[in-house]
Amino acid sequence: MALKDIKAKIQATQRMNTVTRAMEAVSAVKMRKTQAAALEGRSYARAALSILARLSGSSELSNHPLAHARTGTKLALVVMTSDRGLAGALNSGVLRKAFEIVSGEYESVTVYAIGRKADEFFRRRNFTIAKAYENKQDQIELSVMEDLSREISNGFLAGEYDEVKAVYTNFKSTFEQVPSVRGLLPLTLESVSELVREIQPVRGKFSESAASSLEAPVRYTIEPEAGPVLDVLLPRLVAISLYHMLLESKASEHSARMVAMKNASDKSKEVARDLTRVYNKVRQAAITREVSEIVSGREALSV
Amino acid sequence: MKTFHLTVARVGENLFDGEAQFVTVPGEDGVLTVMANHEAFVTPLKSGTIRIEDAEGKKQEIEWEGTGLLEVSNNQATVIL
Questions:
Q1: pLDDT surpasses 80 at A224
Q2: Cis peptide before A186 (omega within 30 of 0)
Q3: Which residues contact B53 (CB under 8 A, 6 or more apart)?
Q4: Domain spanning B4-80: which CATH class is it, in words?
Q5: Which range, A21-25, A56-60, A89-93, A133-137, is most confident?
Q6: How far apart are CA A87 and CA A252, in angstroms?
Q7: Under CATH, which architecture does the A3-24+263-302 domain have?
Q8: Are A221 and A50 in contact (CB under 8 A)?
Q9: Which of the four, A9, A11, A167, A212, has the lowest number of CB atoms within 10 Å?
């Protein structure tokens, strides 16, 4: 390789390093913001959940249309991916999991895609996509989430779906994100309480703050009775579940991208170092060759 | 005056989070006020104004359209909208 080419390559690698370093820093900030948002929303989720926990013994809960388990096999699947790539194995993990589920024995499968990657994946495989949302913004748009939760609740109540599941990436720590599946409808106490418990990351900045569990149920006065309370509560729990899954997916996306970019930065540094070594060798070889040419030229003249 | 911890929240947004002296909410069967050490209690809410007086006596009003829930337990009140 010519000297000039190697030099150009070194410069290109260094430029790439600057870009990936910047992306790494940006993702780190975004990840922290998303985690903070998840923690802030927790008091809401916990209050809603503790009400549900206290009403869970009543027969109204199991008979409520949103909590009533059915035997049919019509599935609606909410798949949450990112819009953009460069985030390591994040999206492929979610999509693999989602594909596993839809390959199961279902009479019909309807997909709600959040993020362009999920939309493209299922469209290519000719699935019915009821709705596709973009997942570009860093803030989660409440209107999108409310719209989605209304739509799947209505579909469930109308009998279009017998079961609603969601596939998303659970944020455990900066280095660990796990593609997870969660049942959304029919609503059960277990699935919601598990979600609330998992809002807190296992490790990292936010893992130790305010770790209080659900207090033991106290005796409640329910005014006027459980039914109307559940009517208000259950749709909100669906929305909260979706909201938190979206937040988890966001935090995972940013941290996965951060790690991917960190690897890219490290690699580009390594490549630049190797190239510099090659450059020096080639240059030295050229100098040696020139010197020997001069010397031999002189010797030829002096004879 | 005794205070209690009050949280007024929507999904993804905390509208009030702190100590309060009392909160008045539009319950489905009429307006009701919760003060410190209220008994454990759950009730649905309807559209209207939520009035809060915080620990320093500062008043705050939140207008709300739609349904909601008020939950009180262990000297903590939570309004979810």
A1: no
A2: yes
A3: B20, B21, B22, B23, B59, B60
A4: mainly beta
A5: A21-25
A6: 9
A7: Orthogonal Bundle (1.10)
A8: no
A9: A212
| A25/A31 Cα distance (integer angstroms) | 10
Say whether the peptide bond before residue A224 is cis (omega within 30 degrees of 0): yes
If contacts are CB pairs under 8 Å, which of residues 14-33 in chain B contact chain A?
14, 17, 27-29
Report the residue from A50, A55, A232 with minimal CB separation from B68.
A232
First vs last Cα of chain A: how many Å apart?
Answer: 36
Rounded to whole angstroms, the Cα distance separating A256 from A84 reads 12
**DSSP string for B32-56:** EEEETTPPSEEEEE-SEEEEEEETT
**B12–A37 CB contact, under 8 Å:** yes
- Locate A6 and state its tokens: 């190697």
Task: Name the H helices within A165-225.
Answer: 189-197
Dig out the tokens for A216 from the structure.
């033991």
Residue A89: both structure tokens together? 């194995």
Mean pLDDT for A34-52 is: 74
Contact B40 A140 (CB under 8 A): no
Domain ranges of chain A: 3-24+263-302, 26-257
Amino acid at B16: F
Mean per-residue pLDDT over chain A, rounded: 81
pLDDT surpassing 80 at residue A303: no
**Other beta carbons within 10 Å of B8:** 26
What pLDDT is attached to residue A51? 73
Whether this prediction's pTM lies above 0.90 is answered by no
Asked if A239 lies within 8 A of B17 by C-beta distance, the reply is: no
> Are A183 and A164 spatial neighbours (Cβ–Cβ below 8 Å)?
yes
- Closest residue of chain B to A47, computed from CA coordinates: B78
The predicted complex's ipTM stands at: 0.74
SS3 content of chain B, % helix, strand, coil (to 5): 0, 70, 30
Distance CA B23, CA B60 (A): 10
Q: How far is B60 from chain A (nearest CA, A)?
A: 20
> Contact, B53 vs B19, CB < 8 A?
no
Neighbours of A204 (CB within 10 A): 19
CATH class for the domain made up of A26-257: alpha beta
